[in-house]
């Protein structure tokens, strides 16, 4: 027996154990950085002292409206200051934050409000008609409404509900924050996109959000006082936990209501933005921005990109413009990004441009807060050979995995089968441990018994100089069962016909992988820039 066999007197106590919570980052920041700028929106500037005061007042106001610990408070807001403030204030009154996707239909919003049981709903006037339709459709008790006007952007409140700034002005600035007694307490409720059936309510705990935020500081190589631009919607995995992360370094959050190339370039040039996250579509916007929307800047902007594998062509085009891209990957169920393509400078810096971009497009390895991420056989849960050829399912294990799905124990059990979180994403793994997504299980095209990765075909088409965006899905075929069908958006002022694109792909792909049909149209996208392939599959089926 070792000397630690007798641990009498070594128990947890208030001095040596405090439940982990991201709330501690802002509590510390107001002491350490009281006069540094914490939040920027247009001409508005809030120091950490002011930011903390506004958060405290909102927490107080919610408590005064009857919100109790464990209750849900929902938002229908774009990336405006109130959304960032709610990220702190809702848990500071002991409640659970439910940020709702502003692009959902009224029926789905109604379902989320009923399923989550929100007591209060913060709404931007632009989305009050959506909220009204959703409330009308609800079966349960309707939440109280707080209207969040945005006068500088011309989005004025209607005056039918209590107004956000009025509520803050009347609230108690000395409200005592309600911190978790257990770090497993629920912090946030995020609904999956729900492309098939009803969306599932993913529950985050304080411990996971704290560790995710700390881990991303390491993964993103962050130092003191970053300036972070909110391109990732704050309703998407709570902005990948970045809003919780920034105060740990005394940084600044720059809110961006409408994501345009001009807004991004202006924020970088005028506010000195150093970091942002976004889907590959955002990088495409930057690469293809009009000359009049571009601004000069002298520093390198660090970008986390996720949502789909970035095309090698896009990576090769954006980096000379002053952006360093780190490819990350995760799901709502993993608090957003949970893996990173950690750059191996010694081995990869001197590779040809095309090969460097291909290495950078891999999903990578586990971030520091995630215990294990690997590729397993979905049936046996055995490790697949790390040869870049064998295909398996990406599985997660660690503190950065959700508590589970709200009121859905069956789905929770299925997703955690065998002690792993099953992502539903198919990948190959290499001998260095890095993995590369082959496809979502539902996106694999099976043509004549051969598996075709839509991601691979898309990567080839994105190299064509006229292609802005593309997505490849299965089209039913009498002979082959399924064949690849490409949906393409062209760059402004460019033209190419379908036959030319098919010939371009055929030079670079096996015959069975080559698209058999090309459709030119605007691609349907989610609020986070992901292409909605389920909509394209419907079109392909009807062709």
TrEMBL record:
Single GO MF annotation: ligase activity
Residues annotated as domain AMP-binding enzyme C-terminal: 456-530
Catalytic activity: 3-(methylsulfanyl)propanoate + ATP + CoA = 3-(methylsulfanyl)propanoyl-CoA + AMP + diphosphate
Class of the enzyme per the UniProt entry, highest EC level: ligase
One GO term (biological process): fatty acid metabolic process
Keyword set, alphabetical order: Fatty acid metabolism, Ligase, Lipid metabolism
CDD domains named in the record: ttLC_FACS_AEE21_like
Keyword DNA-binding part of the UniProt annotation: no
E.C. number: 6.2.1.44
Pfam families per record: AMP-binding, AMP-binding_C
Domain annotation AMP-dependent synthetase/ligase: ranges: 27-406
Family indicated by similarity: Belongs to the ATP-dependent AMP-binding enzyme family.
Protein name: 3-methylmercaptopropionyl-CoA ligase
Organism: Rhodovulum kholense
